[in-house]
């Protein structure tokens, strides 16, 4: 492939072959669970996305423009709205369930496209949608997709872990990401080596050891902390981090909000967004912080703030006493804070980010964190999009029921890149046979030797007739160059033919993944290749 500009790539012939082989595997497994293939427009009218409430929610990530008549349109980031609008043509529960899918270009104005095809601004995605009469039907189709995805990743030779995940802007009641361990990934997955617990850090939980606090004073005590602006500095001054309240000032849907975690913990922004249902979330600016709380970061807290400021507190702080926090006055803090007495908590929620070394909530084993690439994501959408588009059917009792939907995505180019990121050595790529641009390459050592060329052409014709994807390297180049190129490209098998071997009736058969080579009789090589690739 070649980069045209940031986030946009031209796919060259070898790359496109791999891309389309990945797509075909996905297509076959979708067909196997009863999927029907569609092709929907990539350009969508503003009204469709306004109906679901996502025209504004998607923010700058959606490419938007006006057509010549002045109508506002957007390039499709995904197709829930379009499929839900088509579902309005269904009028009876007897037509359900349905699984609809497509392989279509998606467009997302990523602020920082990077890592080749792993984060781009246009890409082919398989997005499928299940339509059911009730939650039980959705659960069944969700499980079907779960199993289909496991089969897809197995055929792609990817060790994908199904993990609990956030639904984010998609909405819905639950989702599963399929994560492939790789240093090139952008996601952290919390795993337990003892039990089957696996979750994205956006959803992960862990066991929090109980902390016994002394009884607090009758009311919080304000004390001077000149120059103290950090958790560590306050700890050095005598307040353990586990007994501090760390207050982050956030703006949720335009409203100033305080998120509070323990001093030794980190706030997970996605958990805050999921817990509050906010469409837009960002940290408050220094000016906003001073305007609403009266102090700069480092002296902030949730004690005594205005009633109109919502306060969300991590569950690990519930019931805690004798805590230390900022007094919302520069260079001052409170100690002796009783959170139930002194803080007007809107809600206790899970806000903290799990760290490696903490204990599994299920079995107590030490948790690990693995960097991963997200290779696929499946969602239980529920009725959100069907309700917005008016997709309803008559049930068995003649009552109108809103269709229940699921959404399931796999990026084709992303999976191609994920395979490349996990299948290589210092010589180049090592494509699995299932997606390799060619199954086998016939390397002709000497194009001037007629016997060698004739033998190579005969093998080439026989393998083609057997529907094996074969390439013949008949370039007038040195053998070392040909070997290096086939290894760089990652063709799984190589048959090497040279004048000396042909004279003795022998060829070499090399497996790319192990670089092991064996001599095979010229008369037997076609059967050897067929047995290896067609078994």
Broad CATH class of the largest domain: Alpha Beta
Q: Averaging pLDDT over every residue, what do you get?
A: 95
CATH H-tier superfamily of the largest domain:
Bira Bifunctional Protein, Domain 2
Radius of gyration: 29 Å
Give the N-terminus to C-terminus distance in angstroms. 31 Å
Question: How is the quaternary structure best described?
Answer: single chain
Strand content: 25-35%
Helix content: 25-40%
Q: What is the helix tally?
A: 15
Condensed summary:
The chain contains 15 helices and 31 strands. With 535 residues, the protein is an alpha+beta fold.
Word description of this protein:
The protein is α+β, with helices and mostly antiparallel strands and 535 residues long. The protein has 3 domains: 2-183 and 371-421, Bira Bifunctional Protein, Domain 2 (BirA Bifunctional Protein, domain 2); 221-349, YbaK protein (Alpha-Beta Complex), CATH 3.90.960; 440-534, Anticodon-binding domain (Rossmann fold, 3-Layer(aba) Sandwich). It has 15 helices and 31 strands. The strands form 8 sheets. Strands 3, 7, 8, 9, 10, 11, 12, 21 and 24 form a 9-stranded mixed β-sheet that branches. Helix 1 (13-32) runs antiparallel to helix 5 (135-155) and helix 1 packs across helix 11 (412-422). The protein is globular and about 100 Å long. It starts with a strand and ends with a helix.
Give me some keywords for this one.
nine-stranded mixed β-sheet; BirA Bifunctional Protein, domain 2; YbaK protein; alpha+beta; 535 residues; single chain; Rossmann fold; 27% helix
């Amino acid at each position: 492939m070649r980069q045209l500009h940031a986030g946009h790539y031209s796919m060259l012939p070898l790359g496109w072959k791999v891309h389309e082989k990945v797509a075909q595997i996905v297509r076959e497994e979708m067909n196997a669970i009863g999927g029907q293939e569609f092709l929907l427009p990539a350009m969508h009218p503003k009204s469709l996305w306004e109906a679901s409430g996502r025209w504004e929610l998607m923010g700058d990530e959606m490419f938007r423009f006006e057509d010549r008549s002045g109508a506002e349109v957007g390039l499709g980031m995904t197709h829930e709205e379009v499929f839900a609008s088509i579902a309005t043509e269904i009028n009876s529960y007897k037509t359900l369930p349905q699984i609809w899918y497509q392989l279509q270009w998606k467009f997302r104005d990523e602020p920082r496209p990077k890592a080749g095809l792993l984060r781009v601004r246009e890409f082919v995605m398989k997005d499928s949608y299940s339509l059911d009469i009730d939650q039980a039907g959705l659960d069944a189709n969700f499980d079907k997709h779960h199993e289909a995805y496991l089969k897809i990743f197995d055929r792609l030779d990817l060790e994908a872990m199904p993990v609990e995940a956030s639904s984010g802007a998609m909405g819905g009641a639950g989702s599963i990401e399929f994560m492939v361990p790789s240093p090139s990934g952008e996601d952290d997955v919390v795993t337990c080596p003892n039990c089957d617990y696996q979750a994205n850090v956006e959803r992960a939980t862990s066991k929090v050891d109980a902390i016994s606090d002394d009884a607090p004073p009758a009311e919080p005590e304000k004390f001077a902390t000149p120059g103290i602006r950090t958790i560590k500095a306050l700890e050095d001054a005598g307040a353990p981090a586990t007994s501090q309240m760390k207050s982050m000032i956030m703006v949720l849907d335009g409203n100033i909000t305080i998120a509070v975690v323990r001093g030794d913990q980190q706030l997970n922004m996605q958990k805050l967004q999921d817990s509050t249902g906010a469409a837009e979330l960002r940290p408050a600016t220094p000016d906003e912080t001073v305007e609403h709380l009266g102090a700069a970061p480092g002296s902030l807290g949730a004690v005594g703030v205005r009633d109109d400021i919502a306060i969300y507190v991590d569950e690990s702080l519930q019931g805690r006493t004798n805590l230390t926090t900022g007094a919302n006055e520069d260079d001052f803090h409170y100690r002796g804070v009783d959170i139930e007495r002194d803080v007007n908590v809107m809600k206790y929620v899970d806000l903290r980010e799990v760290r490696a070394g903490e204990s599994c909530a299920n079995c107590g084993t030490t948790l690990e964190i693995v960097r991963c690439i997200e290779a696929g994501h499946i969602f239980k959408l529920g009725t959100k999009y069907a309700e917005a588009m008016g997709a309803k059917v008559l049930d068995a009792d003649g009552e109108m029921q809103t269709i229940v939907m699921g959404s399931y995505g796999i990026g084709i180019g992303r999976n191609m890149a994920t395979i490349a990121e996990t299948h290589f050595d210092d010589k180049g790529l090592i494509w699995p046979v299932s997606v390799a641009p060619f199954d086998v390459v016939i390397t002709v050592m000497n194009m001037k030797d007629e016997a060698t060329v004739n033998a190579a052409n005969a093998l080439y014709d026989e393998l083609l007739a057997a529907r094996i994807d074969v390439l013949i390297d008949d370039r007038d180049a040195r053998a070392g160059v040909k070997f290096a190129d086939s290894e760089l490209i990652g063709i799984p098998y190589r048959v090497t033919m040279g004048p000396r071997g042909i004279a003795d009736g022998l060829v070499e058969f090399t497996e790319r993944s192990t670089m092991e080579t064996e001599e095979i009789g010229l008369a037997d090589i076609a059967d050897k290749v067929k047995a290896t690739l067609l078994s």
